[in-house]
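Sample 3 of the quickstart, ligand flavin-adenine dinucleotide:
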Amino acid sequence: MNFDVVVAGGSVAGLLCAREIASGGFSVLVIEEDYEIGTPEHCGGLVSMAGLEELGVIPFRKTFVHMIESAEITAPNGNSFTINSKKQKVVEINRRELDKQIAFQAQKNGAVIKVKTSFQEITDTGIRTNEEKIDCKIFVDARGVSSLVHKDRTGILLSAQYEIYADWIKKGKVEVLFDQEKYPGFFAWIIPSNDGKGKVGVAGRGINIAGTLDKILEEKGNYSTIRKIFAPIWIKGPIAKFVEGKTVIVGDAAGQAKPTTAGGIFTSGMGGVYAGHAIVKFLKTNNRLDLEQYQKKWTDRFGEEFAKQLFARKILERVDNKTINNLFESITPGIIKEISETDDFDFHTSSIIKLLGVKGSIKTVQTLIGGELKKLLS
Ligand SMILES: Cc1cc2nc3c(=O)[nH]c(=O)nc-3n(C[C@H](O)[C@H](O)[C@H](O)COP(=O)(O)OP(=O)(O)OC[C@H]3O[C@@H](n4cnc5c(N)ncnc54)[C@H](O)[C@@H]3O)c2cc1C
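Result:
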């Protein structure tokens, strides 16, 4: 078998990359090791409409679930504030359907997709799968965080997310819970899918995530579990090189998920799109500089924001519950209004800066992380 490009990983980044390669007129095969595109789903499904549009996806009726209207953020002592997110146009989508929708786009452009086929190794002329050898000019690694496990474990946290039915879940309202003792360096989340159903998840450094999630749920009230997933997330930002020889790395495999939240539908997806464009150009010119434009393009778009998110993450790794509680106390209705009215879901460090009270009075945080804070602001 022979293709111009073989993509390993049939999820958002790999499929978008294949869609662009096929639309550029080159032959491309996507191999997915699971038995179905979009399954098993390991995602909360939160994404901005602007992000989806840029990815070139207008959600089908089946893909679109509902608009998120607010986000309630809770401190360890139970104090909370609520951001009105209507202007940010954030939606909860059905990831299983989103991935299938992109697979459909890729196939319409001419890509070939095969499930239950796993990438095994690179060969002199292409790659080897569990079934056969396939020749190709370019190999795209879109295998998600699993590709990073062998390279660098230090940026990986384990997450747990349960789909549940519970009367206390309210449509349109996302909840984020901070507690550095219970979920150090990360947070717990509740993402509704409708009234009475949604996804509850947690990640944190060195914790028993299943036990922690069970406890969160017990404290919340009655519920039934419909589905459980445990998946690694990557929080260390982009890897050093997106292109190595004939291998092009895209999406979570290249560390393109946000270091703050590990959300990557948009940023990892754009990695796939940019890589697709660069590969098409390279296949036409055979000039490596064209291939390497991919990393430049992604970095020009997201590099600065990701660097700031990494600093924000450093701060979160260092502050204790008392500092977070103090921080919450200093958040004024004016700051919340400003975030609600002007901020961007995909480039959210401006919200973090406002919440850190840079314009206000958070002496504790400023003393603790003064140097970091200056970098975040610069
Ligand atoms: C619990 C959780 C909740 C999340 N919530 C959100 C959210 O609300 N919003 C958001 O934007 N992001 C969220 N994310 C992140 C988001 O899911 C990822 O950023 C996104 O899926 C990355 O896409 P990808 O294509 O790079 O990789 P993945 O989606 O990880 O896909 C990799 C694919 O490669 C396949 N694969 C692996 N190895 C091989 C192999 N050897 N051969 C062939 N195929 C292989 C896998 O089966 C998989 O289909 C969440 C992640 C987790 C874990």
